[in-house]
Amino acid sequence: MFSSLIISGSGIPRSATTDSIQNILTGESYFSSSYLVGECDEVRVSPVISRKGYLLVLEERTAGWLRRWAVVRRPFLYLYNHERDFIERGLINLTTSQIEYDMNMAYITKDDLLDDAKTNSVHLISKNESIMSPTSLFPSKVNMFTLITNTRTLLIQTITEDGSDIHDWLYALNPLKAGEIRSRLGRKRRTRKLDKLEHYSK
């Protein structure tokens, strides 16, 4: 068996590990000491659950829409396979993520949704269905938004077919963004009402 000890000039045996550490400290290694020092930031997770429920998630690495149980505890969004799943399947830092929502879809009518579904052969999705094809949507995109992280982009749909809970989810994920969207939607609705009144008065 070979010994791992090295005899120094003073005759005192030293281990190779000791020499390696000394070389690093004196700058004699190919690697700087910063490579060996880990860094971490403490993130305090809120004990309050802002919102929870099922969402449909689509991203590049998935073959289709995945039904996931989502829990918002700021600053994170936790994704599970189902509500009784104790293993976190996904973790998204909301403080470093962006949300995009097409506000024009908020004005689409129910008749337009049905016509669009017939034209594009879009079928309604069962709430109990767990995996759908990427082209399968709810009756409209009114219940859909995009969540952009530092490493990936997710397309997310809420479960309600009429998109009635979309603002609640947006508010839980990003209150400032949700407030901005609601304010802009309110201004657009007032403008549309005025345009209709002017049209009927002519």
From TrEMBL:
InterPro entries: PH-like_dom_sf, PH_domain, PH_KIFIA_KIFIB. It comes from the Eukaryota. Pfam families: PH (PF00169). Residues 48-178 form the PH domain. This is PH domain-containing protein. It comes from Schistosoma curassoni.
